[in-house]
């Protein structure tokens, strides 16, 4: 006769509880809730299930100290607790994403629900843990989960790139934002990596220490870093002590990319100091505002100029241009003859700068946005350089079609020729900061136009593989239906030699646009809820991709279900 095995409380250390069916004990896993046969009610088989199905829990198993739970055949206990736990995580996620205090659910949301639904219906919500400590813990868990997912994906990628920028928030704290770009699952991805406060200095050494420490803690290899994109700050661009110098020592093959539209050629010799001097005293602001109101002007205040956000100069100069008559009379009334003379003598420069900064702002908008690669940015810069040469020719012929303000206000058009040196210097500065515009075309045309490039323009060591992919009909179909980045990432295994230089060129960020976007989120986060001290955790929620939410909640749900049991 068959002898039925009985359940032993020792089996809980393997993650098994007991379910009784028709008088027979059946082992049930408290992790995956799978019910095994009675013949599996043996230590060796239960341990084998744990090691085979849940190997990640073997080393850190804690079920021996957990309470023994009986799960019925309908798994009612599992459904009840898992749904409550999942709801708790979803609530914590929404609280963090909305940048609200962690006490808002317990102190505001639940009382409102009880008031609307009544105590009986609201009693079901008691299973959902939404206390301040629970929400804080779950927010930290999900935040850590997001970081682990990003780091794990970077480790799976053969190469990766970063963009970083140092910015000062509303509390005058220097924040370092870092984003990573990498290749995984046949596509390029870019994700938020971390945000750290620069406690001491914003020099290259301090930035390098933070980045290097993050790499060491998370096991990221400098050798796999192929691109670093920064802004134009001296700490980042210095040839001897800049951030790129220690980077080159650790990653010799890294590509240095800077996101910077030169401003030196357009620096006004007269305006910013005088404008800020008028705005420097509250009395001046009030007097000038009353002065403009009495004259029924369209505007009644000047704007401050800041060199940190130098493209704001367009708004500053435009406002000065609109209020030039009022400003002249105000300076005359205030007996500021020096400022008045400088302002009136620089009318042509003012009009010219208003037009030029308008053009630069349009260029800046073209360079913004996610997913833009170096080819895209270089084509825009190259087009701008060609336009500058065209404008110089036009100005020499007294054609002011690109200067609407100058054309409307200037009596003798020949006077604009005095601004031609500005245009030449602007072009020289662009070529100095973007010399790669004329260099990267050689040998890289096959990346942009894989199936139309002449084989003779491809490096000799890649020509044979290039002909293979050029005559691959499946690759042609894929190329037509996907982006350049996705196509290069999808053929890395089939054509490794040809895709390697393409990936190295396409992975580096073309700008620090994502850092700028992240900084705006950081400012918004800090202004709306200053009580949220961990800004990095908040940014992870604001910048986390939507498609990852379900997976991270499932992962956290499983973890907390185990702890709850």
Automatic annotation (TrEMBL):
<protein>
    <recommendedName>
        <fullName>DUF4371 domain-containing protein</fullName>
    </recommendedName>
</protein>
<dbReference type="InterPro" id="IPR012337">
    <property type="entry name" value="RNaseH-like_sf"/>
</dbReference>
């Amino acid at each position: 006769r068959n002898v039925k095995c009985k359940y032993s409380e020792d089996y809980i250390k393997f993650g098994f509880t007991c379910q009784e069916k028709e008088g027979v004990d059946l082992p049930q896993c408290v992790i995956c809730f799978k019910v095994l046969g009675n013949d599996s009610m043996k230590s060796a088989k239960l341990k084998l299930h744990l090691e085979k199905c849940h190997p990640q829990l073997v080393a850190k198993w804690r079920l021996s100290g957990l309470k023994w739970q009986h799960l019925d055949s309908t798994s009612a206990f599992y459904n009840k607790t898992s749904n409550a736990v999942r709801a708790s995580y979803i609530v914590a996620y929404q609280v963090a994403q909305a940048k609200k205090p962690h006490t808002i659910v317990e102190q505001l949301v639940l009382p409102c629900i009880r008031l609307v639904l009544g105590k009986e219906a609201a009693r079901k919500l008691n299973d959902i843990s939404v206390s301040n400590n629970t929400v804080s813990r779950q927010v930290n868990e999900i935040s850590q989960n997001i970081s682990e997912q990003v780091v794990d994906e970077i480790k799976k990628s053969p190469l990766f790139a970063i963009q970083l920028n140092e910015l000062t928030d509303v509390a005058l704290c220097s924040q370092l934002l870092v984003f990573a770009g990498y290749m995984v699952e046949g596509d390029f991805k870019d994700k938020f990596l971390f945000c750290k406060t620069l406690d001491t200095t914003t020099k290259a050494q301090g930035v390098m220490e933070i980045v290097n420490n993050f790499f060491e803690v998370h096991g990221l290899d400098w050798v796999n870093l192929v691109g670093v994109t920064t802004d134009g700050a001296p700490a980042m661009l210095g040839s001897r002590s800049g951030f790129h110098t220690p980077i080159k020592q650790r990653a010799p093959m890294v590509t240095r990319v800077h996101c910077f539209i030169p401003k030196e050629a357009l620096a006004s010799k007269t305006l910013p100091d005088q404008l800020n001097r008028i705005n420097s005293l509250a009395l001046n602001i009030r007097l000038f505002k009353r002065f403009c109101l009495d004259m029924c002007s369209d505007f009644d205040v000047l704007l401050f100029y800041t060199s940190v956000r130098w493209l704001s100069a367009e708004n500053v100069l435009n406002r000065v241009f609109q209020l030039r008559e009022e400003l002249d009379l105000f300076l005359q009334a205030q007996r500021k003859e020096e400022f008045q003379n400088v302002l009136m003598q620089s009318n042509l420069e003012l009009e010219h700068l208003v037009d030029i900064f308008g053009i630069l702002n349009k260029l800046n908008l073209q360079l913004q946005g996610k997913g833009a690669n170096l080819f895209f940015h270089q084509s825009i810069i190259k087009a701008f350089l060609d336009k500058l040469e065209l404008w110089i020719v036009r100005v020499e012929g007294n054609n002011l079609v690109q200067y609407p303000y100058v054309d409307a206000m200037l009596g003798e058009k020949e006077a604009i020729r005095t601004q031609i040196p500005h245009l030449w210097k602007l072009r020289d500065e662009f070529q100095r900061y973007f010399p790669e515009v004329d260099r990267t075309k050689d040998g890289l045309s096959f990346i942009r136009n894989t199936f139309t490039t002449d084989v003779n323009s491809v490096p000799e060591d890649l020509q044979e593989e290039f002909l293979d992919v050029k005559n691959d009909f499946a690759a042609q179909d894929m190329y037509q239906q996907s982006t350049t980045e996705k196509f290069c990432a999808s053929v890395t295994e089939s054509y490794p030699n040809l895709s390697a230089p393409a990936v190295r060129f396409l992975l580096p960020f073309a700008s620090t646009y994502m850092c700028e976007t992240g900084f705006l989120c950081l400012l918004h986060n800090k202004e709306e809820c200053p009580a949220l001290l961990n800004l990095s955790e908040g940014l992870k929620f604001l910048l986390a991709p939507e498609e990852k939410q379900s997976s991270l909640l499932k992962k956290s749900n499983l973890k907390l279900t185990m702890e709850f049991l």
